Fold this sequence. Notes:
Layout: H1 21-28, E1 43-48, E2 51-55, E3 61-66, H2 69-72, H3 81-93, H4 105-116, E4 122-128, H5 131-148, E5 156-160, H6 169-173, E6 193-195, E7 201-205, E8 212-216, H7 218-234, E9 239-244, E10 248-249, E11 255-256, H8 259-272, E12 275-279, E13 303-306, E14 318-323, H9 324-330, H10 351-364, H11 371-386, E15 395-401, E16 404-409, H12 415-424, E17 427-428, E18 435-438, H13 446-464
Parallel strand pairs: 3-17, 5-6, 5-9, 9-12, 12-13
Antiparallel strand pairs: 1-2, 2-3, 4-14, 7-8, 10-11, 13-14, 15-16, 16-18
Helix pairs in contact: 3-10, 4-10, 5-9, 7-8, 11-13, 12-13
Amino acid sequence: MSTAPLPAAHSRAGSASVGTLLDRDAAHLWHPYGAAGARQLYTVTGARGVRLDLTGPDGDRHVAIDAMASWWSVVHGHGHPALVDALTRQAQAFPHVMFGGLTHAPAVELAERLLAHTPDALEHVFLADSGSVSVEVALKLALQFQATLGRTGRRQFLTVRGGYHGDTAAPMGVCDPVDGMHAAFTSLVAQHLFLPRPPAARWVLDADTSAGRWEADEAALTAWEEQARAFAAEHADEVAGVILEPVLQGAGGMYAYHPRCLRLLRQLCDEHGWLLIADEIATGFGRTGRWLACDWAEVVPDVLCLGKALTGGTMTGAAMLCTAEVARTVSRTDHGMPGALLHGPTFMGNPLMCAVASASLDLLTDPATGWHTQVPRIEAGLRAGLTVAAELPAVREVRVLGAVGVVELDRPVDVEPITRAAVARGAWVRPFRSLVYVMPPYVSTDEDVATICAAVTGAIAEVYG
């Protein structure tokens, strides 16, 4: 047995434990949208239900509601027994197996559940690793669809400004090219076609009847529709499909637009032979107050991308669904095409993901306690609790749609002091741009929602007066 010392590159274990966990993190880990060495605000030491146990740099401890649902995914709270049980039972059976040439019950059952709770026209399911990958697959699918029909000039996608569809290569190309996060990568991504962002709209509830209506500037809507029709006619033979986040743009600013804009784009797709791709990764599963955000416009996409809440935030997982017509076309070998969708992630159809996603869907669609009872209750709480924020001098606007509450400031958010002030009041938030926003877990109680609203309002008042 050799007694030679390990090479230097393999002998650093002792130094790795020096300092607090936040110190050790800053020494080596790279976090989302941050610089190397950037310090994180808190360490998570536990998560249960809607609450996080947090420890700060000075050892200060906090219990805070996860008002972000951990980037919009943990809709059932952390460690929900039904999800943990599904994960454990599947792990004991088999945690993973390749999906090429093999199948398994968790994947089949998840596909059946997804199809049972989405429009009838959608018949085929591609199980992906993450939301961004599902968008990659959707874009490739649309290109293959057009090429199989002999429309070789249709290589671009039409979308709207302000959108966000993921950080991998193809999705970056259909994110906002100016105000998005990917301006440094223009040489890496394809150039696509962008309509102006649709005019802003608000979902307004009548206090007496609880009936709602969409409000937007009618002249601005009409002008946008005319521009969209003209632009579509000009580029009809260049476009493979239209991709957008229906009704609510997430990372682009929690920005809502009128459903009739979505209806027009569905009409233009039908007229010109384009595919409509709905990116419902953030908006699906009831988050906006409808099961799918497309339901606001009563339209059915040709391709649907789902993620985030699909697994209840337990692990990464996503799905792309498409119509039978799209699937049949891409499965042909016309015009030299391969007759197969050429994408195959190693962890596609991972049994753990499939099992926990099925359990999550069962919770979401429970007739007694599912999203359709949870989201309206949260929306009412957000509307009541955030109203006072509109009176603060630094606040430009307060808006609520489903289980999404947004306080927009008249300046960029000073993230660290706002976050710390909110945590001190019992809620974890992660502001960006000029927005302090929340997307609570659906299992949040009325008291939890009230705490979140008071934390956001109090934090803004403390930091900005």
